[in-house]
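Shipment paperwork, digital attachment
Item: protein structure file
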Amino acid sequence: MKLGRMAAMCVGLLSMAISAVGCSTTPRMGRYTVNVSVDQASWAGVGGVDAVSVDLIALNTQDGEIWSNYPLSAYFGTGDTTRADADKVTFEFTRDNAGAKALAGTDEHWDRWLKRGAQQLFILADLRELRGQDKPGATDPRRLILPLDTRHWPANRTLDVSIQRSGLRLDTAQKPLPEG
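Attachment content:
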């Protein structure tokens, strides 16, 4: 009798633990492999892209608010100290070097970013055709702001982004947060 009662209690506790994990509302920040590629149609034709610089920066909430509204025309302008001082990863794409580039989830930048409480990944592209058209936050097509909460992304923790003439595009489906 005691054994049956004990087994029932264990099953109950196990089921509560599984439910708690499934409905977790506590964000857990993750590190991701970020693949960035250029949409090949953007390189073609008259007025096509000649070169693009892309910066990846993971920021905490407070810094993210500042960076959300920082004008990207100034950021990518000559002599901008904000860009020079940023702890970033930069990818350079040219017609001769247009292959996909990746930031590995094991890269040392993730250690520093997460230690500083990073909660968002900013991906910023210098699309010269869009300079002077600065907009706040993610309404600027040259800026992607992605949450680092692991509940948003696939288990393989790979994020794919493509650069188009009209702006950045997230090619990885973002999952909605679980309810509960």
